[in-house]
Amino acid sequence: xxxxxxxxxxxxxxxxxxxxxxxxxxxxxxxxxxxxxxxxxxxxxxxxxxxxxxxxxxxxxxxxxxxxxxxxxxxxxxxxxxxxxxxxxxxxxxxxxxxxxxxxxxxxxxxxxxxxxxxxxxxxxxxxxxxxxxxxxxxxxxxxxxxxxxxxxxxxxxxxxxxxxxxxxxxxxxxxxxxxxxxxxxxxxxxxxxxxxxxxxxxxxxxxxxxxxxxxxxxxxxxxxxxxxxxxxxxxxxxxxxxxxxxxxxxxxxxxxxxxxxxxxxxxxxxxxxxxxxxxxxxxxxxxxxxxxxxxxxxxxxxxxxxxxxxxxxxxxxxxxxxxxxxxxxxxxxxxxxxxxxxxxxxxxxxxxxxxxxxxxxxxxxxxxxxxxxx
Length: 375
Fold this sequence. Notes:
The protein is α/β, with parallel strands linked by helices. The protein has a domain at 1-113 and 318-375: 3-Layer(aba) Sandwich (Rossmann fold), CATH 3.40.50. The protein has eight helices and 15 strands. The protein has helices at residues 36-48, 122-126, 129-143, 147-173, 180-219, 243-264, 291-313, 330-340, and strands at 2-11, 14-20, 24-29, 68-76, 79-87, 94-97, 100-101, 114-117, 225-230, 275-280, 283-284, 318-322, 345-350, 363-368, 371-374. The protein has a six-stranded antiparallel sheet, covered by helices on one side. The protein is globular.
């Protein structure tokens, strides 16, 4: 799989940009603030319907414009697909595939498989649990697009249940309220949460050996690197990937936690409270890993995701390395380049041409003041 066309209209700093891309490595060179990452962000948006930098669409629309449009020509197995995404503040994206509108934007997920590494990924290693849950869920949707609906259903049930805990909690604690409605949302949360939890547990089991392998490849033998899933249900669910037992466990835990949840007005049990524990040797990386180790681990997570997608989907995802090499020493640069060079398409950004290893020599573009020109 590779991206053959990227066309932007009023996206970020670009009034208009159009690039014809080729398989193999392509490098975008330019000083910080010139628009390199905006291009990579647009590619990632086509793959995920979201930005790795901001939560809302409004910052993605060029100042003064009413909407932004991304067009992407995707080649997979000698077949070309044209995806168009139009975004505007306050409404859902409008998505077309081969000029045909989609009823649901999320139906475009899977058209482009993409793994994007950016400096923001350090937060997956060093940041809050929400960052690591987001990493897992993004990869789950890339592997199985229908899980986007499962995740949305769970978040909807969680929101409704939290609202009920806050509004009806005082009356229920006083013995004047009816818990029946709360039990209905317990069932919804347990059903959708069990499916999401089962998928996460299976994903971590598949991802863990790949993370150790890719970390060793990038860091030249430091390690070992490990992954473990920490559930709000406790250690008893480790290794369980069947929905039935997980749903029963979630439902029972919600009933047990109800008095505490009524006191606090928030749901304390479920996948939204879980964490991915990343370790290096016997220690968790959060709070113990150095900056260099954290950077290598963040890279290893994305490279492992790339390997898992490649083996599961049966095609090479587009691999994006946004501003990676400046943070690496010469040895890590060379090892990373050797790992990623065989990919069908690699898109690289760098402030200085010399930062990019010769193994990734390919098509070069200069990005300056929102303009992109081939070198």
